[in-house]
Amino acid sequence: MLGFITRPHHQLLSLLCPGLRIPRLSGLCAQPRPRPMAISSSSWELPLVAVCQVTSTPDKQQNFKTCAELVREAARLGACLAFLPEAFDFIARDTAETLRLSEPLGGNLLGEYTQLARECGLWLSLGGLHERSQDWEQTQKIYNCHVLLNSKGSIVATYRKTHLCDVDIPGQEPMHESNFTIPGPSLESPISTPAGKIGLAICYDMRFPELSLALAHAGAEILTYPSAFGSVTGPAHWEVLLRARAIETQCYVVAAAQCGRHHEKRSSYGHSMVVDPWGTVVARCSEGPGLCLARIDLNFLQQLRQHLPVFQHRRPDLYGNLGHPQF
Q: What is the mean pLDDT of residues 28-54?
């Protein structure tokens, strides 16, 4: 069932920025099979995005079936773009299985998503594919690749995760991504989509504000962090980091997440969400697989940037050009 999320900061923002127009509708929440609910006519002109939350397993075809069901539901509800989380293709039990299940971008799995995008007529953010690179035979390592498809099923951008998660948190399954993953060589310039200009990132990247600042400086209006956050770091850091990235860049932040138990060795925190440039969570998923919906109001974003012109106030003479694009 769909539900509306209101902005608790209406009064504060009106006092801070007199004359700033704040949209009445910011987001919607949904379970896996939501029922339609009337949306105020004033919101129809705002693009609608869908954020999908799943529990990937080593079963690639079952994962595709689950993701495809959510994408078709997003299209039925009128979304122009659907976001899938990191490792939407699979989450394996060990490194050997990860490498065995990986595919090149020209593989069968991406072909299925290409067809799905065309069938549904919407853009897809495929948040983290286990990609065999052209030098697979020599390296026997893969990329963690974020693929953006347009509504015709064409690849319009690929971003390979630059910050690899090599951490050992007490109480959480150790992660040593560099054992089997090659770090990406560069950032990707923001891509124009029906929802706005999107800056691509993946999960652990959110801990490095320089990356988000670089994307915002290059023109991003939406930052996306498809993720598979752990059960210990999730409650402590997930929402805090996402809201911080939104506030400091004055961008929308879209974070599709893995949730639940993938197999006997691993589980994820979930709590997929959309955060607006003011730092308010305007849509979020519940505990299990499902989707949430949010409308992207770029006029609100531009007015906020006008009233709080933080990028004009930066002092590179003191701390250098942090966040200046390097791509």
A: 62
What residues pair up with 290 in beta bridges, in sequence order?
A: 53
> Do 163 and 207 contact (CB within 8 A), yes or no?
yes
What are phi and psi for residue 157, nearest 5 degrees? -160, 150
27-30 and 290-295 as β-strands: parallel, antiparallel, unpaired? Answer: antiparallel
pLDDT value at 103 more than 70 = yes
Distances (CA, A) of 49 to 27, 237, 295, 300: 9, 24, 6, 16
Instruction: Give, as one character, the DSSP assignment of residue 316.
Output: H
Q: What does the alpha-carbon distance between residue 200 and residue 188 come to, in Å, rounded to a whole number?
A: 7
CA angle, residues 205, 207, 208, in degrees to nearest 5: 75
Q: What is the pTM of this model?
A: 0.89
Which residues does the annotation mark as catalytic?
86, 161, 203
Phi, psi (degrees; rounded to nearest 5) at 232: -95, -50
CB atoms within 10 A of CB 112: 15
Distances 199 to 27, 174, 188, 262, 265 between C-alpha atoms, Å: 20, 28, 7, 28, 32
Residues 6+ apart with CB under 8 A from 31: 1, 286, 290
How many CB atoms lie under 10 A from the CB of residue 91? Answer: 25
Cα 243 to Cα 47, 275, 276, 283, distances in angstroms: 21, 6, 8, 12
Span 5-27, pLDDT tens digits: 434 444 444 544 544 443 333 34
Q: How many CA atoms lie within 13 A of 108 on its CB side?
A: 5
